[in-house]
Each structure stands twice: as C-alpha cells, then as structure tokens.
Amino acid sequence: MSTGTERNRTDTEVPVTSTGLETPAATPTVLRRTGSLPNWAPWAVLVASAVLMGGLVALLGSGVGLWVVSTAVVYAVATYVVSRVVEGGRRATDRLVTVVVTTAFLLAMLPLVSVLYTVVSEGWARFDATFFTQSMRGIVGVGGGGLHAIQGTLIITGLAALMSIPIGILTAIYLVEYGNNSRLARVITFFVDVMTGIPSIVAGLFAYALFALLLGPGVRFGFVGAVALTVLMIPIVVRSTEEMLKIVPNELREASFALGVPKWRTILKVVIPTTAGGIATGITLAVARVIGETAPLLVTVGAALGINLNPFSGPMATLPVFSYYSYAVPGIPREAFIDRAWTAALVLMLIVMVLNILARVISRIFAPKTR
C-alpha cells in the first residue's frame, strides 16, 4: 500500500520514454478568451462616453473642448476594459492603440479643417466673376478684383519653376548616378542642406542685392522675384528627386547595361520614368512651398494696382502680396479690402490644389506599366 508521500512523488515524476530518455512534463493549458465584440459595440461605447461626459461637463459649466478631450479619454479606457473582459488582453491592447492613433490623427486634422473652413467661408463673399476679370486700377473702395495678382503669381512662379526644376533634377541625377560620394558631390550635398534652411526673406534680399549690383538700386520687377523663389525651390527639388532616384533598384540599371544601353540613355529611359510619379510630387511640393511666399516678393517685386504681364519691367502684383496689403493696409470701407484678402487666399489654395491634381495625373501617365 503506497503512502501519501509516495503518491505525491509519483505524481511529480518525469515520464520516461521507451528509449530511456526523460521527457519534460506537459505544460499546463492557458485558457484564452475566444469571444469577440460585435461591430456596433465600439460605437455604443463612444455614444455612452459622449453622453456621460456631456452631462458631466454641462453640470460643471465647461466648454466643448473639455467635453471632447474627456470623451476621448473615457472612450479609450472603456473600450480597453470591455475588450479585455470579453476578448482578452491582446485584443484589448490592439483596440486601445487603434483608439489612440485615430485620436491623434483627428487632432492633427483639426487645424487643417479649421483653416479650410475659415478661408472658404470668408473668401466666398468675393469669389465672383468680377474678382477674376478686373484689377484694382482705379478702384478705391468696393469692387475691383485680383486678376492682376493672379496673373503675376502664375508668371513669377512659372519662371521660378522653369529655372529651378531642370537645375534640381540634373543636380539630383549627378549626386545619385555620377557623384559616387566624391568631394564635389559632398560639397553639393552640404550646400543643398544649407539652402534648405534659408529663410525666405534672405532669398529675397539675395536676389535684390544681386540685381541692385547689376542694374542699380531700386530694381523691382517680376524676374527678380522669380530668382528669389528659385533659390527656395532648388533644394526641395534636389532632395525629393534624389530620394526618388535612390529607391530605383540597381537590378533595373544592370539589366539595361547588360543590353548595351549607355548610361545616359538608361537614366533617361529607365530610371526617370520609374520615378516620374515621385519626382512630379516633389516638384508640386516645391511649387506649393514658394507660391505663397510674401516676404521675398515684397522686397523684389513690390506691388501694383494694374495688370503687368512683363516680368522684366516694373512692379507686379502677386496673390500673397495682394492679400497682405489688403489686410494690413485696408482702405475705406475696410470690409471690402478684407473680403478681397480672403478671396485671394482662397484662390491661392485652389491653385495649389490644381497643381496637386496635375501631379497625380502626370504620375499616372508616366508611371511604368506593370502589364
């Protein structure tokens, strides 16, 4: 008859296989929750959190901001607790992280939505045919438009793009395809990094000083402003194009070289078409970066009330400067100038949006065909 001690020893013995080797004891089975919340559960928790915190905030007499923040916090905690009880810790953590990331995204979108709403609502008052067909020549108060500013912005930005895009793309091609970390390539990279951080007013002063040395003091015309914007655009184009060229697989280049294709033709026919979408996006970002600049254009271009389509003679109007002067130095009645300032800002945003759409179209046209 075996004693209790013997029974305990027998229960803890390591089983022995037929080969005489000891095998580890079987690990205990961990019970896991297999339930899952229905699809409507997160929304129900959100509504309950919003109602609960809405009542509490109303009792405290606080504002909407506190209600939104407290609702987000309570919703995150409640979602984690409910999911942990029903679905387990891993799924609960996943839901909590999803709530945090979504909340961060919505917080980041708030300033953008606020700016869009403000500009559209304020600028819609003068978003009419008169604004796009008339200038401010002879206009003292109500009336007039921003045709001269729209034309000046397109002309100056177009000249800057014509100068900066070829320089930036060719520089990036040299750095990636020919530089091979040479001394010249390192120097170019250093100066591109320096130019990236140049304040816009410094670019304007540089362009003004350059043309003042060549043509004398007091020079103000559109091409000087285009040169200032070119200084700001080049580093953006170089950096974006360089990053796009770096992601092209070397296998594509080697396959082209194996067929006897020269390097310049490989770059032109293989490398650049492969990254055309990314390059177009970088160029669009560069244009959007400079099209709203005000400080360098105040120094180099000045302001004009009438239409001037000659960028090599006389001051020109641009949308940023037009909006700035309409808001900072309004006339009588003040409301007419403020309305024109907001409408100029709205038109500027629409131009940037059109450029983004154009970049998407270009990327689709020049993207490599997969089938």
TrEMBL record:
<dbReference type="InterPro" id="IPR005672">
    <property type="entry name" value="Phosphate_PstA"/>
</dbReference>
<feature type="transmembrane region" description="Helical">
    <location>
        <begin position="188"/>
        <end position="215"/>
    </location>
</feature>
<protein>
    <recommendedName>
        <fullName>Phosphate transport system permease protein PstA</fullName>
    </recommendedName>
</protein>
<feature type="region of interest" description="Disordered">
    <location>
        <begin position="1"/>
        <end position="27"/>
    </location>
</feature>
<feature type="transmembrane region" description="Helical">
    <location>
        <begin position="270"/>
        <end position="291"/>
    </location>
</feature>
<feature type="transmembrane region" description="Helical">
    <location>
        <begin position="40"/>
        <end position="60"/>
    </location>
</feature>
<feature type="domain" description="ABC transmembrane type-1">
    <location>
        <begin position="150"/>
        <end position="359"/>
    </location>
</feature>
<keyword id="KW-0592">Phosphate transport</keyword>
<feature type="compositionally biased region" description="Basic and acidic residues">
    <location>
        <begin position="1"/>
        <end position="12"/>
    </location>
</feature>
<keyword id="KW-1003">Cell membrane</keyword>
<feature type="transmembrane region" description="Helical">
    <location>
        <begin position="66"/>
        <end position="86"/>
    </location>
</feature>
<comment type="similarity">
    <text>Belongs to the binding-protein-dependent transport system permease family. CysTW subfamily.</text>
</comment>
<dbReference type="InterPro" id="IPR051408">
    <property type="entry name" value="Phosphate_transprt_permease"/>
</dbReference>
<keyword id="KW-0813">Transport</keyword>
<feature type="transmembrane region" description="Helical">
    <location>
        <begin position="221"/>
        <end position="238"/>
    </location>
</feature>
<keyword id="KW-0812">Transmembrane</keyword>
<keyword id="KW-0472">Membrane</keyword>
<dbReference type="Pfam" id="PF00528">
    <property type="entry name" value="BPD_transp_1"/>
</dbReference>
<feature type="transmembrane region" description="Helical">
    <location>
        <begin position="341"/>
        <end position="362"/>
    </location>
</feature>
<keyword id="KW-1133">Transmembrane helix</keyword>
<feature type="transmembrane region" description="Helical">
    <location>
        <begin position="154"/>
        <end position="176"/>
    </location>
</feature>
<dbReference type="InterPro" id="IPR035906">
    <property type="entry name" value="MetI-like_sf"/>
</dbReference>
<dbReference type="InterPro" id="IPR000515">
    <property type="entry name" value="MetI-like"/>
</dbReference>
<feature type="transmembrane region" description="Helical">
    <location>
        <begin position="98"/>
        <end position="120"/>
    </location>
</feature>
<comment type="function">
    <text>Part of the binding-protein-dependent transport system for phosphate; probably responsible for the translocation of the substrate across the membrane.</text>
</comment>
